[in-house]
Amino acid sequence: MAEADPSSSRYVTLRNAFFSGVILVAPLCLTVWIFSKIIDFVGGNFKWLFLYLVPNSLRDRPGLDAVWSILATLIVLALVTGLGYVSRYVFGKFFFSVGDRFIQSIPGVSAVYNTVRQIVNTFSSQRGHMFNKVVLVEFPRKGCWTIGFLTNTVQGEAQGRVGRESWTVFVPTTPNPTSGFLLVLPRSEVVELDMAVGDGMKMIISGGAVVPSWPAAATPKSREES
After folding, report:
1. What is the DSSP secondary structure assignment for residue 216, as one 8-state letter?
2. Given this model, what pLDDT does residue 115 score?
3. How is the chain split into domains, by residue range?
4. Considering the entire predicted model, what is its pTM?
5. 42/117 Cα distance (integer angstroms)
6. Does domain 129-205 sit in CATH 2.30.30?
């Protein structure tokens, strides 16, 4: 088999590097060119308004053109920023609401869409801070273990009525974790896990198909041995 020509290999490397540079530089150059054209348009067509507002005693100053150039640039920056804000927070919300109503009107698709949206909301930062830790509890009967999330350790009336320190645990349903059961359990019946809250949620949504790895140094003791 013939060996590749080193000079040809270097040529291909340089050629690929050149086109990669072009791809990176071209959008930047195009943006600068368009931006400069907009500034020239504003500076050339609205200079009369600027001169009209300037007192007559200052119109003959040599630095007046530089001041107008800077002012025109600031005006363009403000206009572009305002346009971006309107397109993102006004038109964006409008088109999102229209698309949401359209999907909701499709039979069958709306049910799947609502389920997926609820799951996404479950992973939002607000919901994420509600869950302190992944735990194991015996539910719905003794000897049957299920994944839950520790939501609070504060001792209120419900915990005080139990007569011993109790924790609040949320046990979500699978594969839709937006519903579930709120349990008030004695601390001794709650087994804390090392997995992250996100890993626990993935395990629940997948119905146990996704099991996070656990690099334990030793096999944990059973509850009867502890």
Report:
1. -
2. 67
3. 9-105, 129-205
4. 0.45
5. 45
6. yes
